Amino acid sequence: MCPIAMAPAAGTGPEAGFRGVIRVTFGTAAVPAAEGDAGMAGHDARFDAADREALASLIAVLEQARVGVRLVLAGPPADVAAAAAAAAACGLLEEEVTLLANESGRRLVFCAHCRTANTTVQGVGSEVDCEGCATTLAFSGHFSRRIGGYLGFAAHAEEAA
Amino acid sequence: MSSGVIDGTAVLPERISRFPFPFPSDSYRYSTNVEPALKTVVTEAGAWGGRLLDIDEHYRHELTERDAVLTRDPTRLQVLPHMRPAVWDAISTLLPIMAAEHPDAMSFDRDGNACRWQNTLQDLDLEFTLGDDGSLPVEPLRFLGSQIQDDIALLDQREGALWLDAGLVTFAADWSFGFDVGMKFLEVHGPVPRVHQEQIITRAQQFLLRLQPGEKYRRANWTMTVDRRLDTSTETYPQWARDRATVAGDPALPDRLHLRVEVQHLIRLPHSGAVLFLVRTHLLSLSDIARVPAWRERLGRVLAELPEDMAEYKGISRYRSAASAWLLGT
Amino acid sequence: MTATALQAKVHPAVEGGLLLEVADLSVQTASVTSITFTDPAGTALPGYVPGSHLVVQYGDGANAYSLTGSGRHPSEYTISVLRVDDGAGGSLAMHRLAVGDLVRVSHPRSAFAPVATARHHLLIAAGIGITPMLSHARAAAERDSEATLVYVYRPGQGAHVQEARELLGPALAECTDRGSFQEELTRRLTDQKLGTHLYVCGPAAFMDTVLARARELGWPQGRLHSEPFGAAELDQGEPFTVNLARSGVTLEVPAGVSLLEALENAGKGVPNMCRKGVCGECYLPVLRGAPLHRDLYLSEQEKSANTTMMCCVSRSLDQELELDL
Ligand code: HEM
Ligand code: FES
Ligand SMILES: [Zn+2]
Predict the structure, then answer these.
(1) CB C146: neighbour CB atoms within 10 A?
(2) Where does C120-230 sit in CATH, by number?
(3) Does the pLDDT of residue B6 top 60, yes or no?
(4) Among the bound ligands, the one closest to the CA of A154
(5) Which of A78, B281, C107, C133 lies at a CB distance of 3.0 to 4.6 Å from A106, suitable for a disulfide?
(6) Catalytic-residue membership of B219
């Protein structure tokens, strides 16, 4: 279900019924060059991070848009994943969304034991200390688009205490 | 029901005679091992597979355990909103089957959407309305999970893929349903070695995408578990992980270590079109396995021969040689 | 008619299906008649996914028709048949059915299912293409989800128009001429909220037009669902002959019977498991002839080598195959 949208700030969103390309960038990522959307109307937006406010305003834009719209998301992996999850909840299909996540940058590691979403700039295969339960987590490559993060589980649980 | 064959002088108990021993040969590799459901398989100790919904001596105990797990951790049950009809479809499909397979203990009557379900194993006599969540004592999927021993997953088909969008999984073999819910079938299998290069999972997906309403298939999967611990989910991994390291040196290994076999059913539901995936977990200790000489030898050889990447993935690499040595008497 | 309606020889496409009784016939238009089937014993019929079709046997042939109900716990199956005077004869046979006739039908098959996550279903039908849309519209009403129907028909020749009006109310748009339809179509295709899925059924040219227009207006493939009018996957294959080299036996494999079944019937069981071409158990070495590979197990390379085949689903391109068996 599409989360309840906040009304877009006046003058910032595209017109209602928009069916062009919405390009959203997080942090300092460059606005992606148009690819395959030549000739389509564009709407650009930039946010520092995919926080609640940014996602609410993205959702508000999508609620006004109509089928035919395309979404391009660029920035750190965690932000792109969070925005992609919000877009999917609004009914966008995979083929309507282009994800341009930076190679490095913040990612979410979800603790399987206490369900804390940990933010880290480390990569798959590293270890991350959980902020929720202090367990040292193995940062696995198992990724959930719904959660927008990777599975983390106790890295040394089989070893003697 | 088979009464079991003779082991020396004693008749084998049902937990052995009905055990779905999964190895047709001394070496095990992954394959797209699906077959039509309900075919009885005769084993060296008896037979299994004649029913879709298997009830055994652990029925009440396992359902109590499931309820306790759910109470501790409600994330083991998730139904994404669009899957509500699929849950009701599963209920209206499985209860009549269960009643037909266990007429002494259960009965199901339906008139339009009005249903009556009786289950004497739980002293239950319930009237409810299909599609009306409030007519059941608990939420619909939890109710279904309180009647059958199987874990339940429901997959939605769209965009040419299958999505794990609902389920009640309390007895996971080393995975997290709460994390996986919402994933595509191929993503769910991401952590499994070999199967992607070998196209096993893509073939399974093709098969499932084409499965027609009413068709019922099954497959078996296996791993090993220390003690009769059903909840070996990733969530509780810190609680049971140590056993993997210590059991190899434990003189009680033959009684503590169990072959864990999942009989998994794959059913296309008639009205929602969702794929219902049932996982029925069977645990049998090595001591019990050893009472069937053919099984003792075969499992011993399979464990010795299994490639390391598969053993590592299954989480048995710390103790599989000890288990194999005990079984083979070496 | 009763005597001829129940054919002695079961068509492979309805094998393992149901034997139903014609319970009602209702004339929709000069050329469309609705036929309702029930179980002679009065029991409920298997439920089906909205948009499903039923294969119905007539004489030696079988045709697929869309079911018009929602599919939830049905006590009857209803189809609507357009009489095609120069067709293969199926529709004429259906129009000759009388109440009380017994007919062999398949289990309902789903190939045009609704999308459970859709926030709106935009249904577009022309002519007899209305039939699966009635099923979708009914199911949407039962699920309390949104559906809109654009229905194109020739003046005075619309089947189920009254039913559609009652089911959809203001969510029905009727078009009886080409120009007004084109306008309506463009308006609809440019004003759908995200999460809308488009369903189209009607003559092939009509569907092509609608789909092409939708793509032009930016609709991705994943939102487009079409059902080729009347087509069904009655993929029973051509008959062929196999020579079993080692046992010196020759077998005929008729249409609708798999090679595996033919071998089993002749007492030549082959190890098998899935019987669907995915598990890899039933492979057979081929000595001569080109198999028609229909499995998902062999790689493209293995298939083109023509030295192995999966006998549960694959057949033969040649009249005759020689197997190392
Ligand atoms: C024909 C169908 C299927 C095949 C051939 C298949 C195959 C496999 C195989 C080979 C494994 C590795 C098991 C091991 O080493 O112990 C596996 C694991 C698994 N399967 Fe399937 N599977 C099928 C259907 C399903 C379905 C429908 C689900 C839906 C939930 C599912 C969920 C899983 C999960 C969660 C794992 C564990 C993955 C992990 O470690 O995270 N499987 N499957
Ligand atoms: S029996 Fe499985 S591929 Fe033929
Ligand atoms: Zn934690």
Answers:
(1) 16
(2) 3.40.50.80
(3) no
(4) 3
(5) A78
(6) yes
Query: Are the beta carbons of A157 and B238 closer than 8 angstroms?
Result: yes
For residue range B239-268, what is the model confidence (pLDDT) as tens digits? Answer: 999 999 999 999 999 999 999 999 999 999
Q: What's the rounded mean pLDDT across residues B281-287?
A: 98
Q: Is C232 in the pocket of ligand 2 (CB under 6 A)?
A: no
From B84, B203, B219, B228, active-site residue: B219
Residues listed for chain A: 161
Task: Give the mean pLDDT of C178-207.
Answer: 95
Residue C266 CA, ligand 1 centroid: distance in Å: 37
At A7, the pLDDT band (50, 70, 90 cuts) reads very low
Number of H helices, E strands in chain A: 2, 9
Report the mean per-residue pLDDT for chain A. Answer: 90
Find, in chain B, the residue whose alpha carbon is nearest to that of A140.
Answer: B191
Checking if the pLDDT of C187 tops 80, the result is yes
Comparing alpha-carbon positions, the chain A residue that sits nearest to C195 is A91
Q: Do C46 and B203 touch (CB under 8 A)?
A: no
Output the CATH code of domain C240-323. 3.10.20.30
Give me the CATH code for the C12-105 domain, please: 2.40.30.10
pTM of the model: 0.93
Give the distance from residue C224's alpha carbon to the nearest chain A alpha carbon, in angstroms.
11
The reply to whether residue B207 touches residue C276, judged by beta carbons under 8 angstroms, is yes
3 state SS of C162: helix
Which residue in the block uniquely carries the two structure tokens 């508000």?
Answer: A60
Q: What residue ranges of chain C are covered by domains with CATH 3.10.20.30?
A: 240-323
CB C9 within 8 A of CB C254: no
Q: How confident is the model at residue B276 (pLDDT cuts 50, 70, 90)?
A: very high
